[in-house]
Write a structure and sequence with these properties.
alpha+beta, Rossmann fold, 16 helices, five-stranded mixed sheet, YbaK protein, BirA Bifunctional Protein, domain 2, 33 strands, 28% strand, 3 domains, nine-stranded mixed sheet, binds magnesium ion, binds adenosine-5'-triphosphate
Length: 619
């Protein structure tokens, strides 16, 4: 490929739309162009990177016996209704782009493919003799992300490798999951990435195992908490730890304490010398469900602890009635929310800032909702009973301070028995860096940021049961298939590689996924000897099986060197003044190698150096 034919436009300055280094560099070096929010054109240079990543993914997955397939991106609503995910994915904060066809039938643009593949499995898999099966595809996915950002990191249209496996029993699923774990480690390391495996949240699906692969980088959106001994690492969404010990509260009878204007924990502590760990903090939230019901939630947490939203959503989902059709969203319930969204409830009797775990259900009053509009949206309807959840840190306190459910009043020396409550105890607190580890309290958790590039998941039988994907087992009885699913963000991975491999001059691609392995720069195109040698070398290096880019532009040498650094091609061959003596300069993009050598030596050595890089022996 010739740079003159590449419609290469490089930018000297950082584009205003980009915040993180990899996004800036991919734009500046002409790899991507933004078309709309979260929607990017992958220009030819990036397309080559994506193809190289895909080739590595294919090689490694095919080696495990997985089969490549290609499923439709347009998916009928009916399949998603059967799995129970249609409303969750299309209403509220749902991320599925959806539309109606000319017959008025509803369709969604695939954000993921569990429904489609399980329907196929229901159709095609009948007997244990056909199992296990592992299918994957590499395809564009669509997600109307709430906050598309950082270029390819969080796009609304992006490339994913998604795979799904079907098994006769859980043991076979676990085997496949372990095999995918190994394949993923090989894929990321062959791509030249430093990735770590961490325990991940399994979402509302249930307690099945799931693991994410994180590329560690400052710009990562995820927080990884890990122990120094390397035996525990988890996404903060999921991480568990020991909370610091609470400062005990002297035993005393429960009594009211006037706390005028002391509605925050800090105010309360500074006015009365309490420690935050002696206080039970009570939060009022509202869960919106797919059937239109509004479920108020009352969370009790120790005053020095923070709520983990993911754990909360999982706990609430698990406790909703099936008729509520699943959780759409959950957010703090405030007078502002009620007003702006015209929700059918009255919070006049709720003493915000003074809530106790024993807040009466009657404090929330249902009011007639707005008249039904023309849309088919279900009408919001308040569930009259609070869903009360208590974190262990609060449940374990013998005596504590909490709100008195009246303005300007707290209760001191309260206990669960005195309040007449039997707490529904569930882990809701966010583990923090510095916390002691569960597996060894001498170890503490430290934090690092990560970019999630892959996620493997033991799904169990949720989808096969919902979509009737059943098979006949060895003893002749019918049962639901066991399922696993496995994703890699191919386009995100390309950008994550840049995030991990760049310097002040530009990108430094790992050889294995670089768009080109070597760039031949003709320093002065007006000099016939340089031009001729450059062209010859280009041909010879291509013949040697290398991916070669020839900078044949009639530009100043300095401009071409700068661009070569920005593009990040691992090796550069400069054909300059030495050309008439058959001498060229070889420069490694990342590293210190820089030397003059004869053309013949270059042709003898470079293919070996690049081959070592391709196989990951040399980054
Ligand atoms: P995230 O938590 O980052 O939103 P996810 O849990 O929704 O990711 P999965 O549904 O497991 O992601 O998708 C598989 C992989 O696809 C992810 O590991 C990630 O690498 C990639 N991915 C997910 N969403 C996006 C996106 N909006 N843009 C680019 N890649 C994405
Ligand atoms: Mg997501």
């Amino acid at each position: 490929m010739r740079v003159s034919r590449l419609m290469l436009v490089t930018l000297r300055d950082d584009p205003a739309e980009a915040e993180i280094p990899s996004h800036k560099l991919l734009l500046r070096a002409g790899y991507i162009r933004r078309v709309a929010s979260g929607i990017y054109a992958y220009l030819p240079l990036l397309f080559r990177v994506l193809q190289k990543i895909s080739a590595i993914v294919r090689e490694e997955l095919n080696a495990t016996g997985a089969l490549e397939t290609l499923l439709p991106q347009l998916q009928p609503a009916d399949l998603w209704q059967r799995s129970g995910r249609w409303s969750g994915y299309t209403a509220g904060e749902g991320i599925m782009f959806h539309l109606s066809d000319r017959q008025g039938r509803e369709l969604g643009l695939g954000p993921t493919h569990e429904e489609v593949i399980t329907a196929l499995a229901a159709d095609l898999l009948r007997s244990y003799r056909q199992l296990p099966v592992n299918l994957y595809q590499i395809q564009t996915k669509f997600r109307d992300e709430i906050r598309p950002r950082f270029g390819l990191m969080r796009g609304r249209e992006f490339i994913m490798k998604d795979g799904y496996s079907f098994h006769a029993d859980e043991a076979s699923l676990k085997e496949c999951y372990a095999e995918m774990d190994r394949a993923y480690r090989r894929i990321f390391s062959r791509c030249g990435l430093k990735a770590v495996a961490v325990e991940a949240d399994s979402g509302a699906i249930g307690g099945s195992a799931s693991q994410e692969f994180m590329v560690t980088a400052e710009a990562g959106e995820d927080l990884i908490l890990s122990s120094g001994d390397g035996s525990y690492a988890a996404n903060q969404e999921r991480a568990v730890s020991l909370a610091p010990e609470a400062v005990p509260l002297a035993a005393q009878p429960c009594q009211a304490l006037a706390t005028p204007g002391q509605s925050s924990i800090e105010d309360l502590c500074s006015a009365h010398g309490f420690d935050p760990s002696q206080i039970v903090k009570v939060l009022l939230l509202l869960a919106r469900c797919a059937d239109g019901s509004l479920q108020p939630v009352l969370v009790s947490l120790r005053g020095d602890q923070r709520l983990n939203d993911v754990k909360l959503a999982n706990a609430v989902s698990a406790r909703l009635a099936p008729a509520q059709g699943g959780l759409l969203s959950i957010e703090p319930l405030t007078p502002d929310l009620v007003r702006t969204e015209r929700l059918p409830l009255d919070l006049g009797a709720v003493p915000f800032g003074y809530l106790g775990p024993d807040l009466s259900d009657a404090a929330l009053v249902a009011t007639p909702g707005p008249a039904p509009g023309l849309g088919a949206k279900p009408q919001p309807r308040l569930v009259a009973k609070l869903l009360r959840l208590t974190d262990p840190t609060a449940a374990q306190l013998d005596g504590f301070i909490c709100g008195g459910n009246r303005s300007d009043l707290h209760q001191v020396g309260a206990s669960w028995a005195v309040l007449g409550l039997k707490p529904d105890v569930v882990d809701l607190r966010a583990a923090q860096p510095g916390d002691r580890c569960l597996h060894d309290p001498k170890q503490t958790l430290s934090a690092a940021r990560g970019i999630e590039v892959g996620h493997i998941f033991q799904l169990g039988r949720k989808y096969s049961e919902a979509l009737g994907a059943r098979f006949t087992n060895e003893s002749g009885t019918e049962e639901a298939l066991w399922m696993g699913c496995y994703g890699i963000g191919v386009s995100r991975l390309a950008q994550a590689a840049v995030e991990q491999n760049h310097d002040s001059n530009g990108i430094c691609w790992p050889v294995a996924i670089a768009p080109f392995e070597v760039i031949v720069v003709i320093a002065n195109l007006q000099e016939p000897s340089q031009r001729q040698l450059g062209e010859e070398l280009y041909g010879s290096l291509l013949d040697a099986g290398l991916d070669v880019l020839l900078d044949d532009r009639d530009e100043r040498a300095g401009v071409k060197f700068k661009d070569a650094d920005l593009l990040g091609i691992p090796w550069r061959v400069v054909v300059g003044r030495g050309a008439k003596d058959g001498q060229v300069e070889l420069v490694q993009r990342q590293g210190s190698l820089k030397r003059e050598l004869a053309t013949a030596d270059l042709l003898a050595e470079l293919p070996g150096l690049i081959e070592a890089g391709r196989s990951g022996l040399l980054a």
